[in-house]
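Issue: copy button drops trailing tokens. Both records pasted manually instead:
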Amino acid sequence: MNINRYIDHTLLKPTATISDIQQLCNEAITHDFFSVCVHSCHVKVAKVVLKSSTSVKVCSVIGFPLGAMSTEAKVAELIQAKLDGADEFDMVINISWLKSGNENLIAEEIRQLKVAAGNNVLKVIIETCYLSDEEKTKASQLAVEAGADFVKTSTGFGTGGATIEDITIIKNAVNGKAKLKASGGIRDFAIAKKYIDAGVSRLGTSNGIAIINGTTSQNDY
């Protein structure tokens, strides 16, 4: 198993410096991770460092971590990140809308972001730690209906990260119409393999090096 190719090597701390982002990208090149996952303001920096790599992609988060800004703001962020060279996008849904029963607004927002992304991959973060099982199912179904390529469990900045139980719920909800990404709390190879065995196609983690080296990290994301 080439577990490195499942990993979105992630650095989303607000205190991360430009030097930290450059180091993240160099680590991704060294270990041939699938992508680096960064804030949209760092996409240009990542593209410069990764210009020597033909395999490592740049993933930009959108509306991160709360998902509570306007749809127009999310679309604008995605368009700029795409212009800066991002290959994939991980957007956060508006959790308030879901809790309020405004399902049409959520679906329309995802649709608009997918239109802006075009052929680039769009992953939809539903932030499972704040949702009931019924809400997880509904959010996953809305993402699929709106054209999302992936449903992702977590930002890593909420009260909890991925669980196998949540992956099972999402997998059943998408019914093969979208891929799955687990994030939050994936600290070592054994945990990572459990998610892959459960059907996950991508892992969001800052612990990629520990995972491939067989050690355990204490980082939550």
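Record 2 (pasted manually too):
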Amino acid sequence: MAWSPGSLVRRVDFGAIFGTVLILAVFTAIDDGWWSGDTLGSIIRFSAILGCIAMGQALVIMAREIDLSVGSVYGLAGIAFITLEADLGVPGAIIAGLAIAAAVGFLQAMAVLRGRVPSMIVTLGGLFAVRGLIYLWTGGTVRSLPEAARTHWLTRLFGGEVFGIQAAIVWALVVLALLSLLLWRMRFGNRLLATGGDPATALSQGVRTDRTKTAAFVLCSLLSGFAGILTLTNAPQTHVTLGDMMELEAIAAAVIGGCALAGGRGSLIGAVLGAFVITSVRFELIRLGAPGSWYITFVGIVLIAAVIFNHSLAFWVGRRA
């Protein structure tokens, strides 16, 4: 099929593409240092980390659920990595951090699916419970990663550079490629979208919707934990508030990227671009010396605008079809 402007507009991630182009144009016009290597490099690196969380959130939203605990899981996995490194070494601490994150996702999935409790309630409880666990585990103080661990080859693989590119960016691209393969080239993707789009029909076609949603929750938590470890291998000092409010940024990025909160529709590339939009605005507001409340206000306004825009776009595409 030949490309046309209409085909671009019909993409579920059109809002994220438009937002990215707009951000680049506006910030280029108002900030001479926008395209400097340090500024853009930092923005892309943080966008990659948030993008990993947003892609996991996108999977859950496509399944018609939501996960409000990803920021706390991000912090828990990162702190587990630093805390357990002394006993398990770098490889063992990374595996343990990821296993803890996956376990949180599994437990929450069981509460949602077996307990028949809405995912918003379960994961809101998970947000507070996991954050409280961080305080209980650390006593409010977290040590930094020792120098020997910082120079470990695995730490450098996750937190250094790969062929001159910051490792977080490379890993985000790897995650995007693998999840895209899983979503668009394997049965899991069809089952996930069917589960979120029309659960009754999916069940009638033999789709194990509970298993599909469980996989989405586990992958979401796993990616959040992976993002936390990516962060701390690059900046090996942390605090107990690590990941605070990141759940809102991840949800906003996924929705900006075209994920419908009603389920059955979304884009992984859009989620990453949504993360870039949010991170870019945060950096620019900091450079302009704006109060931190401006950023929170922006995220709230953009989230509402994205929901309205995506709903209107879906309605327009439906009428055109």
